[in-house]
Amino acid sequence: MLKRYLKLALGTFILGYVAIGILLYIFKYEILYHPTPDVQTKYGGFMLEVNDAEIYVHVLNPGHENAILYFGGNGESMAGSSDYVAKQFPAFTCYLMDYRGYGKSTGKPREKMLYSDALKLYDTIKSKHKRISIGGRSLGSGIATYVAAHRNVSKLALITPYDSILHVAQERYPMYPVSFLLDERYDSLSRVKAIKADTLIIVAALDQVIPKSSTQKLIEAFDPKQLKVIVIKNRGHIDISSDIKYYKSMQDFIGEG
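Above: the chain sequence. Below: its structure as tokens.
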């Protein structure tokens, strides 16, 4: 009798394990990306034409010599962030890109395509500005490191970053071979040596989304002479931007560009 119950329990466990694994594989993109709706703002912008999609770029404070490209989190609305960013960086022209499938942009968000879109944006606005700094938050930190590794960047600010999405996913689902289930990598760690810009990493002390070990690996990969790390106490992954020290840290770091 006991042996039968043990076999039943084992069979149920295996069935459940396999079923969850299949669901993780099927819905991997839905877990990673959370497209935001199109929201009207008082700011203008332009449509970036790429091969298979149209990418909308919000333009804040146009006409300045220096610029900031900002890449947001996986569920962050660039339209919703526009007012804050514009007010915090009035001396910079700021470009906020709606990822594919987000806001006014068409297509589906995928790692390689977002990299390509980000480089196209940089190349499109490069001639208009003396210096370009990059900011990336959470998911966007992986896009920011890619641009910084492939283009000339003045300053690089990474907010709640990770070493790779693969590491983050493995921490969250330790029982599964995530490397076989997930084909999106966002491997910032592998790009550190190619990044020449002075870099700021802002950490949320109470972050429950990005494991501390993931952020720490990224920190340790940088040359200490190149890197500044600021920890925002008593803040988590979402509410870090509500702390006055958050924007003040980036303002002080980016300075004049």
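The chain has a mean pLDDT of 93.
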